[in-house]
Write a structure and sequence with these properties.
heterodimer, A: mainly beta, 7-stranded mixed beta sheet, 4-stranded antiparallel beta sheet, 11 strands, 0% helix, globular, B: mainly beta, 6-stranded mixed beta sheet, 5-stranded antiparallel beta sheet
Chain lengths: 114, 112
């Protein structure tokens, strides 16, 4: 148990659906991250939030919309996705954004877009 | 640019040593990490090394860093079936915030 939980663990959605991924960290950290993990590709950093403020947005299409209502919760809102968006979406947290503290990962949400 | 490369697959016999290699291109790395991902799970930090170190040992794990060649390796002594997983190396660059750049991962299979 890493202290970072993600729901749902699996999600199948059509291209016209709207869904949200949820991440919660119980570690008292100030920074939270969304990563995309596709087969045979490196993990791609999507977004970073530090103290509820977005500090990194790595050219992610607007069909992915993050939300960080407080330092413990992070959401990824999905709408009109494409089949190539099917992947494992990992959430992580760390004590701070500045510095190189350990990132703690959740188990991920396996997303399939049909 | 940022590019971290790993071989995709490694197979070893139980009890042997495993060596997983990683090369990176950006010389401004400050920290280099090894993460482990078991099936259906997120990434777990195994160990890390600061860029001014050459070696770090932690129980069965030994990390070697060759900055001249931009080469990082992870040696697992006495490899067990529970070590079967995907291993990712990652780097953080100077002034880049806590932003990890990952390799593609090496699938380690431990056979009896």
């Amino acid at each position: 148990e890493t202290g970072v939980t993600q729901t749902p663990r699996h999600l199948v959605m059509g291209m016209t659906n709207k869904k949200s991924l949820k991440c919660e960290q119980h570690l008292g950290h100030n920074a939270m991250y969304w990563y995309k993990q596709s087969a045979k590709k490196p993990l791609e950093l999507m977004f970073v939030y530090s103290l509820e403020e977005r500090v990194e947005n790595n050219s992610v299409p607007s069909r992915f919309s993050p939300e960080c209502p407080n330092s413990s919760h992070l959401f990824l809102h999905l709408h009109t996705l494409q089949p190539e968006d099917s992947a494992l979406y990992l959430c992580a947290s760390s004590q701070d954004w500045r510095g190189a503290g350990e990132q703690y990962f959740g188990p991920g949400t396996r997303l399939t877009v049909t | 640019g940022e590019d971290v490369e790993q071989s995709l697959f490694l197979s070893v016999r139980e009890g042997d040593s495993s060596v997983i290699n990683c090369t990176y291109t950006d010389s401004s790395s400050t920290y280099l990490y090894w993460y482990k991902q078991e099936p259906g799970a997120g990434l777990q930090l195994l160990t890390y090394i600061f860029s001014n170190m050459d070696m770090k040992q932690d129980q069965r794990l030994t990390v070697l860093l060759n900055k001249k060649d931009k080469h990082l390796s992870l040696r697992i002594a006495d490899t067990q079936t529970g070590d079967s997983a995907i291993y990712f190396c990652a780097e953080i660059l100077t002034g880049g915030g806590n932003k990890l750049t990952f390799g593609t991962g090496t699938q380690l299979k431990v056979e009896l």
